[in-house]
Amino acid sequence: MFKINQIFKHHNDLKPLLQEADDRQHLQQCWSAVAPELAKLSHVLAHHDGALTIAVHSGAVASRIRLMEPQLLQKIRDFCQNSRKIKGLNLNAIKVKVQVKSRPPSKHKRIKAPSNQALNTLESYANEANNPALEAALRHFIDRQRHD
Predict the structure, then answer these.
(1) Residue 36: CATH number of its domain
(2) Which domain of life does the protein's organism represent (predicted)?
(3) Are 32 and 80 members of one domain?
(4) Domain count for the chain
């Protein structure tokens, strides 16, 4: 059985895809090494015309990257000089794309109505309560539950 890399290597039309995936993987490793705290909240999208495009999950992370851009570019250059796989990477900018993940609507759990036994117990507590505000609140709650 062929490995996927062998299939890509043997087809001229697919070779560029394999090279692009390999390059992106090396760039992601570089990004993770120079900005580990940011790499948890982002990933490399592309490298084109001297700009590294990073996808982030929030505007706050995007702002942080933009503020740190000069330091990050220098760290990336230093990393590339010491790397065998990414030598000669010429970066002059970091572009940030915010890609907010949509969340499914949360399901509100319907709270079950208290049983008659629970309401009777609360009513006995209301009768014994020495606090008029507590007694009034319990009676109000009991009345609403029995009439709903």
Answers:
(1) 3.30.300
(2) Bacteria
(3) yes
(4) 2
Instruction: Name residues whose C-beta falls within 8 Å of residue 80's C-beta, 6 or more positions apart in sequence.
Output: 30, 86, 87, 88, 89
Phi and psi dihedrals of 87, rounded to 5? Answer: -60, 140
Query: 53 - beta bridge partners?
Result: 46, 95
Supply 31's token pair. Answer: 């990004």
Predicted TM-score (pTM) above 0.70: no
Q: Is the pLDDT of residue 86 over 80?
A: no
Residue 1 reports pLDDT greater than 60: no
Sign of CA dihedral 122, 127, 128, 132: positive
DSSP line for the chain:
---HHHHHHH-TTTHHHHHHHHHHHHHHHHHHHH-HHHHTTEEEEEEETTEEEEEESSHHHHHHHHHTHHHHHHHHHHHHHH-SSSTT----EEEEEE-PPP-PPPPPPPPPPPPHHHHHHHHHHHHH-S-HHHHHHHHHHHHHHHH-
How far is residue 107 CA from its own chain's centroid? 20
β-partners of residue 112 are: none
